[in-house]
């Protein structure tokens, strides 16, 4: 068993971990290893929201364009869809780059940059958004229930770790972050105002901003494609509805009140929008501490956790279900948010 924190990022602690080296977790879990690479990586969530056939056609065409751009292309991408609380269907194309500088070349390049910055985006039956995180390696952690369960940033990994120690207890998410060895990761130090007023629905507008230091991002995934029989029945009937209810809570005013600035529950699809048996929750939080309080104390997360644990126990720890999660805690310079023609409760606009 090894530490989730890679050797190259370990340092003398000024802040003690929640559990010591003698802790033994109740089940195996793993983390992605990125070899000797210590530069910031980037994940960019590009979205299209719509409520009409014309908007859907525009969204499909845009996703096709993003997939086909070859110059400085991401090292991995996926596509997902969902419906937000305002009833807008949303397509989200997610790109992962091993090198944050290469993402900037892609974003500002002639092919994507000309399309994104075109005035035509302001006059279409579609809203567009770009939400970007470029975490330093000290501020990123990943967790997988299986050594072959690579998702998200894990798709950029050189290999998977052996079984890790820091999981299965409250506080383990923070303990997996290398920066937590010396930093509290809670203070909101700076805030940047939006470049223009937050738009009202259906108003032509382009809004760009960064948020606050220590903004937290989580992508938490579920892959039930390998399940069968009782496990599959229990997941679909008992676990997934509770998970969906929790994500719906975070996407509400009540979720905003506890520090969840934005939340989406999305189903992975292929380029033709055929659904896979994979989903993920994506949420932005005012701080890691807010995310931790929801995970530890709130009834909606307790219901999710208890549902998963009942499934684990009923299957005697032998699960085909694959779970994954990645968390980053971002300085304001490591974020970028841009919204075009979006309704007022899209993403971080609602906060």
How does this structure look, described?
The chain is an alpha+beta fold. The protein has a domain at 42-135 and 190-211 and 334-350. The protein is 26% helix and 26% strand. It is built from eight helices and 13 strands. It has helices at residues 53-68, 100-108, 110-117, 172-176, 229-250, 253-257, 288-297, 299-314, and strands at 32-33, 42-50, 76-83, 89-97, 127-133, 140-144, 159-160, 206-209, 215-223, 260-269, 275-285, 322-330, 335-340. Strands 6-12-9-11-10-3-4-2-5-13-8 form an eleven-stranded antiparallel β-sheet. A two-stranded antiparallel ribbon has the order 1-7. Helix 5 (229-250) packs antiparallel against helix 8 (299-314) and helix 7 packs across helix 8 (299-314). The longest helix has 22 residues, at 229-250. The chain is globular and about 60 Å long. The N and C termini lie far apart (41 Å). The model is unreliable at 188-202 (pLDDT under 50).
Structural features:
alpha+beta; eleven-stranded antiparallel β-sheet; two-stranded antiparallel ribbon; 26% helix
Largest sheet: 11 strands, antiparallel
Low-confidence stretches: 188-202
Quaternary organisation of the protein chains:
single chain
Silhouette: globular
**Considering DSSP H and I runs of 4 or more, what fraction of the residues is helical?**
25-40%
Order of helices and strands: EEHEEHHEEEHEEHHEEHHEE
Rg, alpha carbons: 20 Å
Strand runs, count:
13
Counting H and I runs of at least 4 residues, what is the number of helices?
A: 8
| Estimated structural class | alpha+beta
Strand content: 25-35%
**Strand arrangement, major sheet:** 6-12-9-11-10-3-4-2-5-13-8
Between the first and last Cα atoms, what is the distance in angstroms?
41 Å
Mean pLDDT, all residues = 91
């Amino acid at each position: 068993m090894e530490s989730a924190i890679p050797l190259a990022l370990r340092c003398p602690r000024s802040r003690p971990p929640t559990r010591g080296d003698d802790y033994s977790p109740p089940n195996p879990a793993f983390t992605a290893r990125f070899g000797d690479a210590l530069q910031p990586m980037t994940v960019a969530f590009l979205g299209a929201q719509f409520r009409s056939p014309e908007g859907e056609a525009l969204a499909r065409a845009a996703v096709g364009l993003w997939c086909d751009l070859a110059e400085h292309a991401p090292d991995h991408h996926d596509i997902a869809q969902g419906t937000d609380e305002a009833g807008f269907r949303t397509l989200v194309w997610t790109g992962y780059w091993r090198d944050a500088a290469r993402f900037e070349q892609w974003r500002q390049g002639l092919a994507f940059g000309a399309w994104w910055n075109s005035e035509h985006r302001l006059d279409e039956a579609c809203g567009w958004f770009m939400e970007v995180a470029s975490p330093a390696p000290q501020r990123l952690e990943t967790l997988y229930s299986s050594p072959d369960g690579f998702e998200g940033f894990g798709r950029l990994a050189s290999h998977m770790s052996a079984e890790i120690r820091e999981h299965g207890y409250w506080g383990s998410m923070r303990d997996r972050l290398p920066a937590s060895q010396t930093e509290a990761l809670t203070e909101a130090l700076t805030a940047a105002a939006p470049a223009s007023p937050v738009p009202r629905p259906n108003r032509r507008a382009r809004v760009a901003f960064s948020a606050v230091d220590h903004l937290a991002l989580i992508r938490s995934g579920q892959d039930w494609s390998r399940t069968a029989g009782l496990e599959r029945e229990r997941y679909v009937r008992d676990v997934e509805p509770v998970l969906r209810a929790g994500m719906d809570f975070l996407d509400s005013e009540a979720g905003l009140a506890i520090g969840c600035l934005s939340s989406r529950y999305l189903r992975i699809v292929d380029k033709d929008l055929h659904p896979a048996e994979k989903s993920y929750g994506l949420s932005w939080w005012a701080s890691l501490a807010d995310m931790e309080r929801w995970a530890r104390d709130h009834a909606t997360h307790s219901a999710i956790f208890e549902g998963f644990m009942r499934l684990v126990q009923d299957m005697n720890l032998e699960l085909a279900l694959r779970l994954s999660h990645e968390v980053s805690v971002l300085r304001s310079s490591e974020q970028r948010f841009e919204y075009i023609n979006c309704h007022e409760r899209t993403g971080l606009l609602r906060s």
